[in-house]
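Technical note accompanying the year-one report. For the benefit of new consortium partners, we illustrate the data format agreed upon in the data management plan: each record pairs a sequence with a structure-token string. No post-processing was applied to the example shown here.
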Amino acid sequence: MRRLFHFITGAGIGLLAGGVLALLFAPTQGDAMRDALRERVRTLWEQIQQAGEEERRRLEAELAALLGMESDRPVDKV
């Protein structure tokens, strides 16, 4: 029980110290950092959407080509 208490205490102190150091050494202030992060997320989301659209077009073209090949084959009747 004592070891668990020491571990939790140490983790809490480390978390607190890390938070304080992160605030002291942050390269920009809060508003600017949030704006930069928001812009990065927006850019990443646009890239994901664009890649998804390109992949959808590629797969649709591939499906159309496969269906076109299928319709050219003679149908075997039993």
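Partners are asked to follow this layout when depositing records. The CA atoms of residues 2 and 26 lie 36 Å apart.
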